[in-house]
Specification:
about 35% strand, elongated, mainly beta, six-stranded antiparallel sheet, 6 strands, about 120 residues
């Protein structure tokens, strides 16, 4: 196999169903994961995201119960220099200041073991 040649796996990112369709949020998540990957010197290139959740998960302080933010899980599609592609789940969060949620979306971690090879599309 030559560098950059696409590998067929038999699983397709296009068959993954999104729980929430929100173009603005998806764009923010894609930018966020691309910036995080670059900062972390990851090899893959992220090109697409789908939000898994149907709605936001509210994040609260465990002691006080005060809302501190909200989070969603997204399926993030990536291509790799050797020609294979993957999808992996990551958590993204918006902070809450007591009145409003931040317009910024922050990377909040990955779902361990969720990375799967998929067909490059």
């Amino acid at each position: 196999m030559k560098q950059g040649e696409k590998i067929k796996i038999g699983k397709s990112y296009s068959t993954i169903k999104a729980g929430m369709i929100n173009n603005e949020l998806e764009a923010k998540i894609l930018t966020c994961i691309q910036e995080y990957a670059k900062k972390s010197a990851w090899d893959e290139t992220f090109t697409n995201v789908k939000i898994q959740n149907e709605d936001w998960n509210i994040v609260q302080n465990t002691l006080s119960g005060v809302t501190t933010g909200r989070s969603v899980i997204a399926y993030c599609f990536a291509s790799w220099p050797d020609g294979h592609c993957t999808v992996q789940q990551f958590v993204f969060k918006q902070k809450f200041d007591g009145q409003n949620y931040s317009k910024m979306v922050n990377y909040d971690g990955l779902i361990s073991g969720s990375q799967e090879k998929v067909d490059c599309e």
